[in-house]
């Protein structure tokens, strides 16, 4: 077994800073979303993903893949959102086992009401703290890591 490549001081500082920032940012954005719109982060993710599709519907399996959730976990969450009138579920015409999640008018109103405050919070707690160069660097590094992890997952599947 190879000897571990321990992080040097600079790398360790960057790694720990990223982890702390991510936890604090996620916590604050979730808190503001819940207080301002009465939505959880998963609610917002479901509603925003649905609202961005042409027909405002997605297969449950595709939505689960986008959210990196199991189908079972998302199915339970969708059931709770259905009870609140935010989404409905339809059977998939081409696959009797699949289902389609559909944005309701109440769900559309909820995401339209939540989006301005959520975007303002993202700006306030991240985007507006960065220079144009830092935003470009953040975009480049996040896409590089996402591409690496996506490629790896695809080769392991």
From TrEMBL:
Source organism, top-level taxon: Bacteria
UniProt domain HTH marR-type: residue ranges: 11-147
InterPro entries assigned: HTH_MarR-typ, MarR/SlyA-like, WH-like_DNA-bd_sf, WH_DNA-bd_sf
Family annotation (PANTHER family): MARR FAMILY REGULATORY PROTEIN (PTHR33164:SF99), TRANSCRIPTIONAL REGULATOR, MARR FAMILY (PTHR33164)
Protein name, entry field: MarR family transcriptional regulator
Organismal lineage: Bacteria, Bacillati, Actinomycetota, Actinomycetes, Micromonosporales
